[in-house]
Amino acid sequence: MPVRFCPRSLLCAGVLVVLTLSGCSGGSVSSSTGASGSTGAPSAGSITVTPVSYAQLQEAIATHKGKVVVIDFWADWCTTCKEEFPHLVELHHKYAPQGLVCMSLTLDDKEGEPGALRFLVKSKATFPNYRYEDKEEWGDRFEMKGPPAVFVYGRDGKLARRFDSNDPSKHWTYQDVEAEVTKQLAVQP
């Protein structure tokens, strides 16, 4: 009996060979660590989301004593947060050499983590990114109604200023955050 080749099967096999040889993983986003690709653009492997408790977040802040720390509280479901987030990335690039450490803390639940990670990769958020583990507790723990919010910690590790929506009459922008950052960076350790 003669062997017949199906053009469709041959095409599928060819695509499989090309994907295998090119190292394609199907384009999925992962929260595992790894090196950036050769293009210079951050990959999902170089940008991660680490689940943290309140105590672990405080420990992360404390490890940077002597530097100014900015934490942006955000969520993938918060449109305003995502519109403001590029300013955090800009602050990171502009002031990291002077002693600024930027961090992001998503308030998404575990199921929302993949979407948050995709956003962080797209935003090139190459600084520590965390997901707060206890979604029932964050409002009380951080004394805020919801995101967006930004906390600025001085070189002494203490909260210097917070920007949030608790008082609707006190509207803030990232220009206000940057002004506080430059003020805190001017303080010598």
Task: Describe what is shown at a glance.
The chain has 189 residues and is α/β, with parallel strands linked by helices.
**Helix fraction by DSSP (H/I, runs of at least 4):** 25-40%
Radius of gyration over all CA atoms, rounded: 21 Å
CATH homology superfamily name: Glutaredoxin
Q: Would you state the CATH class?
A: Alpha Beta
Q: Can you count the helices? A: 6
**SS class:** alpha/beta
Largest sheet: 6 strands, mixed
Overall tally of domains: 1
CATH topology: Glutaredoxin
Spatially, the strands of the biggest sheet line up as 1-4-3-2-5-6
Mean pLDDT over the full residue set: 78
Find the count of extended strands (DSSP E, 2+ residues).
Answer: 6
Order of helices and strands: HEHEHEHEHEEH
Model description:
With 189 residues, the chain is α/β, with parallel strands linked by helices. It has a single domain, classed as Glutaredoxin (3-Layer(aba) Sandwich). It contains six helices and six strands, in the order αβαβαβαβαββα. The protein has a six-stranded mixed sheet, sandwiched between helices. A hairpin with a 5-residue loop joins strand 5 and strand 6. It is globular. The protein starts with 6 loop residues before the first helix and ends with a helix.
Topology:
Layout: H1 7-22, E1 50-52, H2 54-62, E2 68-74, H3 79-95, E3 100-106, H4 113-123, E4 129-132, H5 138-141, E5 149-153, E6 159-163, H6 174-186
Parallel strand pairs: 1-4, 2-3, 3-4
Antiparallel strand pairs: 2-5, 5-6
Which tags fit this structure?
189 residues, Glutaredoxin, 37% helix, alpha/beta
